[in-house]
C-alpha cells in the first residue's frame, strides 16, 4: 500500500509517535527487524483517531476504507468457514460483537545491513480468528510452516492472504 510506504519513509521524528521499531533478539536468536503501526479499529467508540497517522494526508481515509472492506471480507470468509463446519452461516459472525477488539497492523521491513539471521517477524501463530494480510510484492519473505517444513508464500499485487488463527482452530474442534 503506497500510503503506508510513504508514512514509513518519513523522518523518524515525524513517525515516532505512531510507529514502533521492533528490534528484539539476542545472540541466541534472530533479530526481529520491523516498524509497525497498530491502529485500534473496534470497538468504534474507543477508536482514537489522534493515534492514527495524519501523514500522508490521505493515510487515515485510505486506512478507514481498507478497514471497512476488510470487515466485509472477514464476514464473508467466516460465513464460508461456518458452512464448511456445518454450522449456521452466521454462527461464527455472531461472535464478533460490537465490543470485540479489532486492530489493523501496518508493518514495514526496513533494509538491514546484515540480513542473515534477521526476521521481520519471528515464527509465530496468530491468536485471532482470521488474519487478512495485504502483502507487498516488493518485500517477500513470508513463509508458512506445515508439518515442520517452511514454505514460501507467493504474493501477487492486490491479492489478500487469509490465515486461520488459533481461535478459529479451537472453535472448529467444539
From TrEMBL:
Gene3D superfamilies: B-lactam Antibiotic, Isopenicillin N Synthase, Chain. InterPro entries: IPNS-like_FE2OG_OXY (IPR044861), IPNS-like_sf (IPR027443), Oxoglu/Fe-dep_dioxygenase_dom (IPR005123), Plant_2OG-oxidoreductases (IPR050295). Residues 96-174 form the Fe2OG dioxygenase domain. The keyword Transmembrane does not apply. It holds the Pfam family 2OG-FeII_Oxy. GO terms for molecular function: metal ion binding. Keywords: Iron, Metal-binding. It comes from the Eukaryota. This is Fe2OG dioxygenase domain-containing protein.
